[in-house]
């Protein structure tokens, strides 16, 4: 899922940093309006660590393998905290694990962070859904948010790579590989959606206040 150094042109990388700066500023502004930042910071730190570790858990889906991303989970549980959490996780993944790179850090942050914010908004839509019990609504919308976050990230990855294949490479072979890699993320969407739903239902049962306010919507 991580875009590597050298794949994208300099203007695209600079544009990624610009969008990341704008999104980070907006999210921090929303977080400042959170009446209880100190309560949410430990939760954000814990899920940042989970995001960092997730990239090392590979799931073989022939003919390739994918790794957990959990950006939809972070968006669902953390709200506006998710984007800076993902940015920090990506920075450590690039420096320590070599996943992605520094020149594409901004693009990778947009690719995984913006879908996390979309997942957060999708999870909030449960408030307007009148059918079913509170628990069933939580589970359904958490599943959709978790799957949506990863699906949007995979779609952005697909568009960026398909439109930036270096001329020196075999374009047809690269396209075939990219199609296969993107399709391999469909079962991963179900896995991450299911994991997000289970975590949200667990938190709802043992600590429901952890699913509460995450800054001003």
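Q: What amino acid sequence fits the structure above?
A:
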């Amino acid at each position: 899922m991580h875009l590597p150094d050298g794949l994208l042109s300099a203007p695209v990388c600079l544009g990624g940093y610009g969008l990341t700066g704008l999104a980070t500023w907006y999210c921090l502004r929303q977080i400042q309006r959170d009446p209880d930042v100190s309560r949410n910071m430990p939760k954000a730190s814990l899920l940042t660590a989970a995001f960092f570790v997730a990239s090392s858990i590979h799931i073989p889906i022939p003919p390739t393998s994918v790794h957990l991303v959990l950006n939809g989970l972070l968006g669902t549980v953390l709200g506006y905290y998710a984007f800076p959490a993902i940015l920090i996780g990506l920075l450590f993944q690039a420096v320590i694990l070599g996943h992605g790179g520094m020149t594409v850090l901004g693009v990778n942050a947009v690719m995984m962070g913006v879908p996390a914010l979309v997942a957060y908004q999708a999870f909030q839509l449960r408030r307007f859904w009148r059918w079913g019990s509170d628990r069933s609504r939580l589970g359904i919308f958490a599943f959709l948010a978790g799957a949506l976050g990863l699906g949007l990230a995979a779609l952005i990855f697909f568009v960026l790579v398909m439109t930036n294949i270096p001329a020196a490479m075999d374009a047809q072979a690269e396209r075939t590989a990219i199609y296969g890699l993107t399709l391999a993320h469909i079962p991963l969407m179900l896995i991450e959606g299911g994991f997000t739903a289970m975590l949200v239902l667990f938190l709802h049962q043992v600590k429901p206040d952890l699913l509460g306010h995450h800054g001003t919507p």
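Q: And what stands out in the fold?
A: The helical segments are 10-32, 37-54, 71-78, 82-97, 105-124, 134-162, 171-206.
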